[in-house]
Amino acid sequence: MELKIYNPQADGFLKAIDWNFEELKEEITKKSSDYLNLVYSDDQIKDAKQDRANLRKLVTALEDKRKEIKKEVMLPYEDFAVKEKELVEIINGAIENIDTQVKGYEEGLRQEKLAKVKEIYKECIGDLDRTIPFDKIFKESWLNVSTTLKSIKEEIITIREKIDGDLKIINAENSPYIYEMKEEYLKDFDLMAAMAKKTAARRYSKEESSLRRTKEAGSRRKRA
Question: Lesser CB count within 10 Å: N end or C end of the chain?
């Protein structure tokens, strides 16, 4: 099945428009050159307006001819384009039907794999499921055909071990801000963010204490 052009043949398409370009160019260049070097006196403004009108008339004539030629040249193409698009529309209807079925099949496979991934998650995460919610570590790439269940299991185990290790580090901190640190850590499982939270909480606490002492000192002075 292929599109065949019967007329014109490959060598029958319009290659160029044969017209008196060089002749016109020579005449127009000479005439324009005269006008480019022409200086009108105040008494010649009427002539200047007439010359301008004549030149504009020439431009209009050239542009009108260009548009006329373009229309003639485009007529067969536009007829061809309308019919070609009609064929494409028919084919796209068939493609859409097939595409719907293919996507439905692929989505079915993705859902089957998602169920298996969730089973692996439960097996690997165990009682840490509230600490490490599935949606928080899930990656769309896990559902790709090229991603094996083995690699997904290894990745989930690595995630669990990292989070478990990070939480042990936080729990070992001799700090009154462990709760705040855990709260920050569990947002994105970022240990550095948790440590930064401890520093910020400590700084805030010191500022609050300093402010409280300043207020108390002020109150004592007023009483005195």
Answer: N
